[in-house]
Amino acid sequence: MSTRQNKKFLYYIFFFMLINSMIFGSQLQSKDLSNHGNFRYSPEKFENKNLNLVKALPGGKIVEIKFKDNYAYCPASGILLIFNISDRLNPVLVGQIKGKGDYIRDVDFYENYILIADGRYDGILIYDISEPSNPVYKGEIKLLPTVYSLEIRDNLLYAVTRCCSYFYVLDIKDLFNPEVLDKKPMTSPINLWVEDAYAYIADYKYGLKIIDIRNPRELKEVGVYNIPNPSNPKVYQVRNVMVKGNIAFLSAYDDGVIILDISNKNEPKEILRIP
Question: Which of 142, 166, 201 is the last residue of a domain?
């Protein structure tokens, strides 16, 4: 996805978070989502909200932002930028890490380490960020090739790989000697979101996949949502996924942003689409 498309997706997500807090109240949080007729795209509701840009982070093509303590970690193509954001209006660039594959896609944290998904390199880079202004290279996880997206929950690492097209779960209690608990074949996975007992995988042209991860040694696909492209019914393009409660937000290229009711994981249903 281009930088412009990434920004468009973030704007839509921010827009719908505003909807959640300003218009629908607790509706997006509710487990009873049977009344979908209340969901409406109503830009006029925001005429007086006066959202103003207060500061822009330098750094070019930032594709992701993750936060730890008072720092923002921003993958920007082949470089990971590290900003001190103690003063939110005056972020300061304090450090950076150069990737090995020139395509850093995602990061997450484990104890004092940051794990870096370098999408064009066969391995996850590990740096000690005890001092964010002076990150120290510590090693790599070589079990996973070309990782595009990763998330860490407790002692488990969840990741999707593009070239071999798998969803992996690793036990990383021993970070430098991890164990693969299970892996599940995908088709073309590009983005990942872990929420409670499920992983939601943007499988690019093959829609959204929902995986039951309650038993990390036996992953189970429980739901699929495909997005028919009006110009070509055989093409599906899901680029990003975010989940809030029983609602999933999908970035789908020319199909815009799609919002799903995922209260029934076996049968995700479309609520709203914004082209």
Answer: 142
Burial class (CB in 10 A: 0-12, 13-18, 19+), 189: buried
- Using CA atoms, how far apart are residues 261 and 148, in angstroms rounded to an integer? 26
Asked whether the CA dihedral 64, 81, 179, 112 is positive or negative, the reply is negative
Closest by Cα among 231, 235, 237, 227 to 204: 237
pTM here is: 0.80
Whether residue 27 is predicted with pLDDT greater than 50 in this model: the reply is: no
CATH of the domain at 135: 2.40.10.480
Are 248 and 268 in contact, with CB atoms under 8 Å apart? yes
Q: In terms of domains, do 137 and 193 share one?
A: no
CA 150 – CA 167 distance, rounded (Å):
10
The CB density around residue 251, as the number of other CB atoms within 10 Å, is 24
Q: Which domain holds residue 133?
A: 54-142
153-198 pLDDT, tens digit per residue, is 999 999 999 878 899 999 999 999 999 999 999 988 999 999 999 9
pLDDT at 63 over 50: yes
CATH label of the domain that carries residue 214? 2.130.10.10
